[in-house]
Design brief:
144 residues, alpha+beta, 4 strands, elongated
């Protein structure tokens, strides 16, 4: 289709029903193809490639101690988990932290506090790098 014809079709001046469509007919027909896509096909592709490469990180915001099982299952599968306990009661949050500490100890992982009541659980084959330097700062930021 020529560029003038495309512009005319876009403006609605000509009928483009007999021209080639811009989508694959296989995905246009049938409900099974529509169900497999989210809203953007690239989202699904990125999720699959992350799963293949093992570069996924899970974030969990538990509402009660009953949600600790989901944290354990993710971590047991080798996925780092960020646990946000800011919305929990202090008693239940302490129980989840105790569970997470035992989980990481038992599976030889590590647990790091990221922020107030937010923790990162990492499997043994991951290394957490902090942005802090071990030595004294020099230059512009050394204002002492």
């Amino acid at each position: 289709m020529g560029s003038v014809r495309k512009a005319s079709a876009w403006l609605g001046l000509v009928d483009d029903s007999d021209e080639e469509r811009y989508y694959d007919d296989e995905y246009a027909e049938g409900s099974e193809a529509r169900e497999s896509w989210v809203t953007n096909p690239r989202v699904r592709v990125a999720e699959e490639s992350a799963e293949e490469e093992g570069t996924r990180i899970a974030t969990v915001t538990p509402e009660s101690f009953r949600d600790a099982r989901g944290i354990g299952e993710l971590f047991r599968d080798g996925i780092p988990v960020i646990v946000n306990l800011t919305g929990m009661e202090p008693g239940d949050a302490k129980r989840v932290v105790d569970f997470a500490a035992g989980l990481t100890f038992g599976l030889r992982g590590s647990i790091d506090r990221v922020a107030n009541r937010v923790f990162l659980l990492t499997p043994p084959d991951y290394q957490v790098l902090s942005g802090e330097s071990g030595g004294r700062r020099t230059g512009f930021f050394n204002q002492s």
